[in-house]
Design a protein that fits this description.
Number of domains: 2
Largest sheet: 3 strands, antiparallel
Number of strands: 9
Distance between the termini: 35 Å
Order of helices and strands: HHHHEEEEEEEEHEHHHHHHH
Radius of gyration: 25 Å
Strand order of the largest sheet: 6-5-9
Shape: globular
Strand content: 5-15%
Length: 392
């Protein structure tokens, strides 16, 4: 790839910086604002989700519980109030105890006000603390005899920072570091060829601009670039972080349905807000269609308006979650064959193909993560283009 000309560098710099001496470009400010709005919306949706799995049981099974692949898989793809780092392990006579990073529990009780403490106080779900307890990652109020108090639980607002929320904050911080670093480089050296991180980011940003925004939206595509760049890098970075098997990776952020739901909701709202007369005419009273059929077409088109964001949610959520599950299934085969064999031989034999397939799928998921970021961004741009097309 040839270095960009001075004219191209100045055009790309317009994505990041404000022309003049005031510092940051308004478009960077829009990107930062969109990141935090998406973050706030994600928390709002996530707070209302009912978790379906307790990581405590998966990490610390009692002697009466049997290990199952299903519980292990669900533990790794669901959210949690602590960040599990490693299990108990022993090697060459040296043993290391399991370690998890406790996360803050933040509760607002309509009777008792704001309460904050560490999730370690629950001792993996075996103990109540300050009249609260946790089961299946759901915090509830306990009565005088330790039973669940339904009335008091209904008055609790759970604002806790869960594993996915912390991973999301980490990815946002990483995005800010990347974008602001590249912006400073363009500001200091506007006419020089890109170097380092700037050289890595420039072709990706140009790709989103030329092959996504400009191609799908055509007219006045620049006004949508901050949003499209935000969702592209947000999805891509979180997809990659979810494939890293150690802290701070391993969180299934985009596989949590609340996250793609919030992004799809913003795409939906923007599409409705920018829709022109031509767009609404084709939805509500399609021209060129017999009058007898127009009411039926209107129902179909209106349904399509709501189906499009739902498709965005399902496409991202299902693909990322399925990828995590398939990788974990292959890892589980090692323990399944080991338990049903006469010795550890079965597990060792199964380990070779299982690990090989898991590594292959992990590499494949790196590609899938980029593709899903591209598809979500492209479809959003297509919807914007449809809403602003004047028919000429």
């Amino acid at each position: 790839m040839h270095p960009p000309t001075s004219r191209q560098a100045r055009k790309l710099r317009g994505i990041y910086m404000r022309r003049g001496s005031t510092g940051m470009n308004r478009k960077i400010a829009k990107i930062l604002l969109l990141v935090f709005v998406l973050l706030q919306g994600t928390f709002s949706f996530a707070d209302n989700q009912e978790p379906s799995h307790s990581n405590n049981e998966a990490d610390h099974p009692t002697e009466h519980e049997e290990w199952t692949a299903g519980s292990m898989i669900m533990h790794h793809i669901m959210d949690a109030h602590e960040w599990h780092v490693w299990d108990d392990w022993e090697l060459w006579g040296m043993s290391v105890s399991a370690w998890s990073i406790p996360l803050p529990i933040i509760l607002y009780d309509e009777d008792r006000g704001l309460t904050m403490f560490s999730s370690s106080e629950f001792q993996h779900g075996t103990k109540a603390f300050k009249e609260y307890a946790i089961a299946d990652e759901h915090i509830y109020a306990v009565g005088p005899n330790g039973e669940k108090d339904e009335a008091a639980t209904a008055m609790i607002w759970d604002l806790s920072l869960t594993k996915n929320a912390v991973a999301l904050l980490f990815s946002v911080g990483l995005m800010l570091l990347i974008f602001l670093s590249v912006a400073r480089r363009y500001k200091k050296h506007p006419d020089e060829a890109p170097k380092g991180l700037q050289a890595l980011m420039e072709p990706i940003i140009l790709f989103v601009r030329d092959d996504v925004a400009k191609m799908a939206i055509k007219h006045n595509y620049e006004r949508y670039m901050p949003y499209l760049l935000t969702i592209f890098f947000f999805i891509w970075i979180n997809n990659i972080m979810g494939l890293i098997p150690f802290f701070p990776g391993g969180a299934n952020v985009t596989g949590n349905v609340a996250v793609p739901m919030v992004m799809a909701l913003f795409t939906f709202i923007i599409t409705l807000a920018i829709g022109n007369k031509h767009y609404w005419q084709h939805i509500l009273w399609m021209p060129g269609v017999p009058v007898a059929i127009k009411p039926l077409m209107m129902v179909i088109e209106l349904a399509g308006v709501f189906i499009k964001p739902i498709v965005l949610v399902i496409r991202l959520f299902a693909n990322i979650t399925a990828g995590h599950i398939v990788i974990l299934v292959f890892i589980s085969l090692i323990f399944i064959f080991g338990e049903h064999g006469t010795s550890t031989t079965g597990g060792l034999i199964a380990a070779i193909p299982a690990i090989a397939f898991a590594i292959f799928l992990n590499i494949l998921e790196i590609l899938v993560g980029a593709i899903q970021a591209y598809v979500f961004t492209l479809l959003s741009a297509v919807y914007f283009g449809m809403a602003t097309d004047d028919g000429h």
